[in-house]
Write a structure and sequence with these properties.
Oligomer: single chain
Order of helices and strands: HHHEEEEHHHH
Helix content: 55-70%
Distance between the termini: 40 Å
Structural class: alpha+beta
Strand content: 15-25%
Number of domains: 2
C-alpha cells in the first residue's frame, strides 16, 4: 500500500499479537480457503468483503484503518459489531499482505529486466552515487565485493 501509515503497522506478527493466536489462525484459514472475495487499499485503509461459511448469509464487509493510537477496524459480522478484531478482518489483512508481496516481486522482476539494458558503467556510477548518501547500500555493496573476492 502506498499511502498512509497502514503499511508501517500491518505485518503478520503485529496482527497475530493484536488479535491473539486463535483469531489469527481462524482468519488465516478464512484467507487460505478462498473466502476473501475482494480487498481494496487506499491511503491509510483497507476495505474488503469476506464470504461467510454459511453461504446463505450475506458477505461480511470489513474495513481496517489507521488511527493515532494504532489500527481501527469494522466488520459487519457479530464479532465485528461487538467492536472486536474478527477473523474476517485478519483474512482481509492477510489478503492485502499477500497482494503487496506479489506486487513487490513483480516490480523487482521488471526492474531486473530493465537493468539488463543499462550499461555496466552507468549502473556502477548510479550505485556509487547512491552509496554516498545511503550507508546501508554502501555496506551491502562492500559485502558483495568481499564475497566475490573469496
Amino acid at each position: 500500500m502506498t499511502g498512509g501509515g497502514i503499511a508501517n503497522i500491518l505485518h503478520r506478527e503485529t496482527l497475530a499479537m493484536i488479535v491473539g493466536s486463535k483469531t489469527f489462525e481462524r482468519g488465516e484459514q478464512c484467507f487460505t480457503t478462498g473466502r476473501v472475495l475482494g480487498v481494496e487499499s487506499g491511503p491509510g485503509e483497507l476495505c474488503g468483503v469476506v464470504r461467510p461459511q454459511d453461504r446463505t448469509r450475506a458477505p461480511y464487509e470489513v474495513r481496517i484503518w489507521v488511527r493515532d493510537d494504532g489500527l481501527a477496524y469494522q466488520c459487519t459480522c457479530p464479532i465485528g459489531e461487538a467492536r472486536q478484531f474478527c477473523k474476517h478482518a485478519v483474512a482481509i489483512a492477510l489478503a492485502h499482505l499477500e497482494r503487496e508481496a506479489q506486487r513487490g516481486e513483480r516490480e523487482l522482476a521488471a526492474l531486473r529486466t530493465q537493468l539488463m539494458n543499462v550499461s555496466m558503467a552507468a549502473l556502477l556510477d548510479g550505485l556509487v552515487q547512491h552509496a554516498r548518501v545511503d550507508r546501508d547500500l554502501l555496506d551491502a555493496l562492500k559485502r558483495i565485493c568481499e564475497r566475490a573476492q573469496r
